[in-house]
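This follows on from our talk about sequence and fold. Can you supply me with one protein entry, sequence and fold together? Could you add the entry underneath, on a fresh line?
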Amino acid sequence: MTMTPASSTPFPDGFLWGASTAAHQIEGNNTNSDWWHKEHSGTPHIKEPSLDAADSYHRWREDMDLMAVLGFTDYRFSIEWARIEPAPGHFSRAALAHYRRMVEGAFERGLRPMVTLHHFTVPRWFEERGGWTADGAADLFARYVRACAPVLNQGVRHVCTINEPNMIAVMAGAAKNGDGGFPPAGLPTPDAETTEAIIEAHRAATAAVKEIDATINTGWTIANQVYQAVDGAEEATAAYRHPREDVFIEAARADDWIGVQSYTRTRIGPDGPIPAPEDAERTLTQWEYYPSAVGHALRHTAEIAPGVPLVVTENGIATADDDRRLDYYAGALDEVAAAIEDGVDVQGYLAWSLLDNYEWGSYEPTFGLVAFDPETFARTPKPSAAWLGGFGRTRTLPRLPRTP
């Protein structure tokens, strides 16, 4: 399948062009984390454990080599709290040195690292003492961040404190409902105590990063569900959206940037969320195929937090058909380019994900630009990887024709 630009929009100066990953989803054998325990304790919604994942803890050089060859200029990856602080107050110099080597390895390959400090996993000891809502949790998170100074203090320009805090609060709310189950459409109500605690932790972490280096651009990423009112349900939509999304955008108004992460939309009627139409195309996660989501997400975030620079830190599709992945990115990037042309301050686009990976309970949803063999761990870039990476060389955002 060949796709050529119909027109193009130049990158803003310093535009971040790359892909994202998360440590637990690609590294493998993160045995001290809360998620490893969940995977091996019979949690109902977890179909399979992560085990070796993509073995990126050892193969990160190969992954970065691929990114550089493909043309990307930026790599967002997370560092693992459970490896760095496997026991309370005990910080692994070996783990810190490992992640510092990753930072230096990125620089050596011409990649700019964006480092995420927390991407859904915590040390098991932290979870057992009560997690984010326990007394002193924010201070413990800030202590961990300060310990990461050797990783961050030379050259890292972008740090994400917490990935998708709204989803952390949603999951806590689901757990308090008893069975942790999700409704057929929409999201459970976020736990209010967790919302307050995670915002406190973000602010403590931001202060800790600024202590390390005041010039580091610090923010967090928010899962934007693209809530769309149906049948005049604007008021109901705003009321539904605020605790699940807007409160977290509002908390980032003083940050250096906000990460926008979107994949699909959620329609809201007068009585609440409406499932996607029965004839809608669906991805491997059963989400509605909706490439325009990222444009709506950027504009909404800019409306709630005017003046704060935005970075698309995740956007992509779970599919086994790379032609559909190409088409999804074509539509999504058309929306990003249109937002930039309309004056939205978008400073980067990072696809999800560099690799097919462990999607929190299963390897079945394949989001990756690069496939890997679970036996040999050999990497195989998909056509979408070369197509998307190529724009890092041209320095233009593509405006592309769509394939039905």
Q: What stands out?
A: Residues 1-7 have pLDDT under 50 and may be disordered. Residues 192-212 form the longest helix (21 residues).
